[in-house]
Every structure is written in C-alpha cells, then in structure tokens.
Amino acid sequence: MTEDEMWKAVSENDDAYDGIFFYAVKSTGIYCRPSCKSKLPKRDNVGFFDTSIEAQVAGFRPCKRCRSDLCDYQPIKEIAQEVKTLIDEMWNEKHILDKQLKNIGISNRRIVDIFKEEYGITLTEYIANLRLEEVKFLLKTTDDAIIDIAYSIGFGGISSFYSFFKKRVGISPWYIEG
C-alpha cells in the first residue's frame, strides 16, 4: 500500500483500513486509526506505521478519541475463547463446567449467543461433537464395553447413547468398535 493510498484512507476516515496501518501526527505526537474523526492534519505532518507498537516505539502516544491502542482489543472474541477453553477442558464434567461458565459474569443466554456468533455452532452442538469424537476414539482404542463407554462419556443410559450415536454417525456403534 502506498503512502498516497494511506493518506486517501485517512482523509476519508475509511474504517476498512483500521488495523492495517496507523498514522501519526508529528506536530501533536499522537497516532490514530485511519477512521479517526479528529481534525485532518496537514499531510506534511503525517507519518505511517504498520502497527500501533511501531508508532509507540517511534515516540507517539495513542489517540484518546479513536483509541488506537485498543485496535486489537476484542472482548467478545476473548469471552468466546475463554468459553471454548473451559468446554474443551471440562465438557465431560457438567456441574464443574456450569459453575465455571457462571464465573465469567454474563448470562447463559449471552454466552450462547457469543459462542455461536464466534464459532458458528451452539454450545450444545460443540459439546456433542466433542463427545462424539471421544466415543469414536474409545471405541477404536479400548476394549471397554459399549455400555461402559456410554456411561464414561456422560450418558444416563444405553438407549440415549445409541440414539445419539446413530443420529450423528448414521450407524450403530457396533460397527466402529474394534
């Protein structure tokens, strides 16, 4: 990207370039996002940087208006990742998982919405996929009876396990075993 293209983005406050580059104003010592709505500086006073860290190292401070220092701050993405990590670690311990999810400090409904928005799948589906992968792994790598595998994965009975497995895989778990 040329400096002329970057200047055009800055002069048009084009948010499509936010995070792609930053501009700094030499006369004020401040760096901004291209979309910053502050007064357009003189072109001669502007320098361009690929990252906010480069601008800071060069001695510029972040703009208080556009919060150029928070360009990478994505709290929703962080919440989704925290939820995913908890599920990956505790999917088979429902009571502990539920308690940990409550500790995040937002409602269950909002957690579900955030997770689905970020990963394109509901919490229930994600957990079901983890369960299915564990079932397949255990069926192929252990000599455990199917009923023991079903209980170890958290199914209350063999019929619910068979129903779950057949719905997701299309065949009986007997065909996977061994």
From TrEMBL:
Record GO terms (molecular function): methyltransferase activity
Q: What class of enzyme is it?
A: transferase
Residues making up the signal peptide according to the UniProt record? none
- Sorted UniProt keywords: Activator, DNA damage, DNA repair, DNA-binding, Metal-binding, Methyltransferase, Transcription, Transcription regulation, Transferase, Zinc
**A Pfam short name:** Ada_Zn_binding
- Which residues are in the HTH araC/xylS-type domain? 81-178
What is any one GO biological process for this UniProt entry?
methylation
Q: What is its EC number?
A: 2.1.1.-
For activity, the cofactor(s) needed are:
Zn(2+)
Coiled-coil-forming residues are: none
Where does the chain cross the membrane? none
Instruction: Specify the superkingdom.
Output: Bacteria
- Alphabetized SMART domains for the sequence: HTH_ARAC (SM00342)
Instruction: Please give the name of this protein.
Output: Bifunctional transcriptional activator/DNA repair enzyme AdaA
